[in-house]
Each structure stands twice: as C-alpha cells, then as structure tokens.
Amino acid sequence: MDYYLHDDPRLPLAWAPWFSHEYITYFSVQSIDELMALPPVAVKPNPDFNNEKWPTGPKHIDLYKESYREYRNLSPLWSFAYNERNGEYSIDPPEHKTIEPWKILVIYSTEPDLHPDHDLYLHKNQKITGGSHGWRHMQFRALGRKFGIATESVRLNIDLARMAFRNSNDYWGWRYLSRATHYLADLGNPFHVHAVPSWFLIRNLFASKRLFQTVSAAHQGYEIYAERRFRVGFPAFKQALLQGAREAQADHLVMDDEISSYRHQAKKRLKPIFNFMLDQFGQELIDVFGQLDKNSHLDAAAQTNMCSKDAAKIIFRDPDLPALDFLDRITTEILFDVGRMLGILLQRFSPNKN
C-alpha cells in the first residue's frame, strides 16, 4: 500500500486536515515494518507522570481522537490552526476503544503545538524564544548564551514513554513517544536551532520590534511553504523521509551520538533559507506580520499562526515560481536528516527493543 497520509483510507477525515509534523511522522513510521504491524492497544487515561518537573500549560486538555464526531470538511490548503479539525473529540478516554500504535504516533504528533507548552513561566529568558512554547521547541546560542531546551524536551518525553510502557500503559507510551517525535523534528528545523543569522541580529540589535517581526516572517513563512508542499503531495519530501528513516535503521545508529551533529547541520542551513525568504518576498511578507507584539501575553507561535493565511497568499501567488526550487532542494535535504533521526528513535521502540 502506497499512500500519502491525506489519501490513506485507514485514517478518517475527522482527523484532518493534516499538518507538517503529522506528515513527517507518518512517512518515518511507514519505514518501520515492525511498528506498522503492531496490534491495537487499549485507550487509557493519562498517567500524569512528572507534572512538577514538566508542567502542562493551563489551557491544555487531553483530547482522545479515537472517539470522534465528524462535522466539517476544512480546506487542506487554507487551514492553519492546529486545533481546527474535521471532527470533535472526547475529553475522556473512550471505553473499549483500541488503536494501532502507528496511528497514535501520527495523530498526536502535533499535540505539542497546541497548549501543553503555552502560558508557562519556565525561564527568565523565554521572551527571546517567543514564550514558553518556543523555549521547549527551540535550542540555540546567541550573544554567548543558550536559549531553549528542545533536546531536553525530546529526552523527557522519551523517559515518560518508557515509564508508561513499564506501567502497562502502552497507549500513553506511544502518545508520549509521539510528542518526542515532534521535538526531535523541531531540532532539524534551522529556525529552531539558530533563529536568526548573526549579521541580521547585530544589525538590528537595538531595533527589537523589527527583529521580532522579520524573524517571525521568515520562520513562519518557511513553515507555511513546507506544509503546503506536503499537502499537495510533493514526492521529494516523502522520499527523503522514507530514505532517511530506512538508512538509520540499517546503520543501527544511536540517537545520543547523532543529535549534536543533527542540530549543527540544521543550523548551517538557516542563513541561506533566511536570506532567500527576505530576498524573494521581502517587505511584503514582513508587513503581514506587522500586527505581532513582542510584549503580548500570547506566545509568538499563537500570534504568527494568525498571520499564516495572508503569508501563504504571498508565498504561493505564483504556483510555478522557479525560485521555490531552491527551497525544495534544501528542504529535501533537511527532511532526509529528520527522517534519519526519527528512524533512530522509533526503531528503539520496535518489538523486543523497549
């Protein structure tokens, strides 16, 4: 069977539209036959491990997509809010429901982009990452300081997954692991491990509003581009993820040995992508993000999502824009590395390995 997530009949329309992290996890999981063959597990309540060490945002509620009511059909090309789907879901674990582990990995991989990491006070410097959400999803150095804890986010959720498996809660074992795939994929995104080229940071060091607005435009614009490519079925992205994940399994790599070079490789790709976004779309794209307020009570991620539709209209104004070939090539390289790291992670949880 050769599907492209959005045409996979095993996944109901109620769970759509699909976003980049779901595509990334879907293709990485597809590469591991042992995971795809695992039987369904019973849906269970969240064991709520380690709340003091890893607090959850006050607005977060665990939703259980296994119990759903389909009631709308949103456009996949013009849907930008992760919480707006084609179904409504239960806030209580549905009784007598089961689900295959690979589906858990896919459908909950966007969960960290909802409310678990929002509206928290985690560190005095979290404003630099746009709030607590960015603090957990990013990790970079600037002006001699480290900002963000994305690597810790990966490792903690792996630990939570192992605790759930040891406590016979396989459902939440896979669901915590799904969250880990999200943070691990974020570490392969150049904007999450470098944020801004040094030349631009120095030039705008005392123009914080312009800095925030421009970086947000380049970052969110790039993510909008990648998501649209996934949604239209761009084959190079699929093949890169599958190839990366398969090669990782064949090489028997260890995640802790690879994660530093993975981040470093992503960091090197930031400058050409950042420059491209400014050169190609310039002030017009930046102006879309003019409503952003670095002092807002909202996390930067929540604010930038509100600008996504207008940004997409600019980036994809010309569907045959030859310049996008550059983004296609460099993003394919990025996704190969992301698939490789997810392959390393997921094979550790294949049968007889956890």
Question: Would you mind describing this structure in some detail?
Answer:
The structure is a single chain. The strands form three sheets. Strands 1-4 form a two-stranded antiparallel ribbon. The two termini are 27 Å apart. The chain has helices spanning 20-30, 33-36, 101-107, 132-137, 150-166, 170-186, 190-193, 198-203, 208-231, 235-251, 255-268, 270-288, 300-305, 308-315, 324-347; strands at residues 41-42, 64-70, 87-90, 98-99, 140-142, 145-147. A hairpin with a 2-residue loop joins strand 5 and strand 6 (145-147). It has 15 helices and six strands. Helix 3 (101-107) crosses helix 6, helix 10 runs parallel beside helix 15 and helix 12 (270-288) packs across helix 14. The relative contact order is 0.15. The mean pLDDT is 91. The protein has one domain (13-347). The radius of gyration is 19 Å and the shape is globular. By secondary structure, the chain is mainly alpha-helical. Helix content is 52%, strand content 6%.
